[in-house]
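Supplementary Text 2. Reproducibility record for the structural model of the 425-residue chain.

All settings were left at their defaults, and a single model was retained for analysis rather than an ensemble. We include the record here because the model underlies the residue-level annotations in Supplementary Table 4.
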Amino acid sequence: MTAIGSAQFCRARMHYAWVVLAVMFSATLAGVGVRAAPGVMIVPLERAFGWDVATISGAVSVNIILLGATGPFLTGLIEVIGLKRTILACLAMLIVGTGLSNFMTAPWQLFVTWGLIVGIGSGAGAMGMAAAIANRWFVKRNGLAMGLLTAANAAGQLVFLPLLAILARRYGWQGVSVAVTLAVLGIFPIVAFLLPEWPANIGLGPYGAAAAPDPPPHQGNPFAVAIAALCRAAHSIDFWLLSLSFAICGLSTNGLINTHLIAYCADHGIPEVGGAGVLASLGVFSLIGSAGSGWLCDRCNPRFLLFWYYSLRGLSLVVLPFTQFDVVSLSIFSIFYGLDWVATGPATFALTNELFGRRDTPVIISWIFAGHQAGGALAAVGAGAVRSFTGDYLLAFMTSGLACLVASGLVVRVTRPASAVVPAV
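Retained model, structure tokens:
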């Protein structure tokens, strides 16, 4: 069934924007499963090849930083070849990267497959793509749509990590690689058949708008699109405040927790499956937190939401190393940290929309997300180095927690335009 046929089928039942949201949610789900895989592969790769944690996390850091560095240009590419083709190209790179990794035998091959190719392909689930979907398809419930797309990152943890950990224990790292390759292969035709380019292409307006605006003309150079948006944003101190705070967000989430929590649990005698279970429980509460954050962003000042998100996250990271690492302490951490793990995404998106407008936001938030990934890459390699040199993750967690408290002070200084009113919908 094509997108037009699906839209006709859905017309009397729901707006097709919700179908698009579900398709993009699924694509993000598959992409985050790929990005989460290195977290359960660290220990099996150590055992299989004798590579140390610093080497493996170095490849992960390449992955993380490329996801951010290529994001603005991939989002610019949307305006050249279209949203659908860009997402499909990214999914194809994920398939190639994870598929080829099954044959690796040396660290440089880990850097090429899981670092370079997967790092670029992961752009299919990056914030710029999600922002383009939310702003193209939703006038009302815009924050909620972004919250649900951001929540796909949490759901990816929930769906994939326990299964990947079981596969890693039974079949080694190659079982993980094969599983994520098949997952992305499964989502590819769904995106190809059910994702329209614009609401107008199927005779609809965005959700909450009666008219279907004409799509803007394609531009010829994705690099020019990305650089022009950066030049416009760079003149605003608010852009740098959001970029720095979001860099700290990345440092304290995918760089530290997503990459190293399973290994940290292993240091305390908790096997890989148990550590993956902790991350999965974080995913459950992140799903709730991100969706709730999107709902709140349609109603509340996102600056103060971000203040509380960063403050609570920082406190949880500082306290964790001093707990007993038992069921009770890890459960409390999963709830406390999990609820605001990805809740920062919708609030940062809402602020960017207010400051820079809905047209420019997808590319600008991709630049802000590049800061997020730079922070994540720093934490991924830095925490691995701390673990290798000191034998413990204590310094990494303390540094990350204190950085989050700094971020909570940065976000309240972001200027809210006097004319900006957050609609209650």
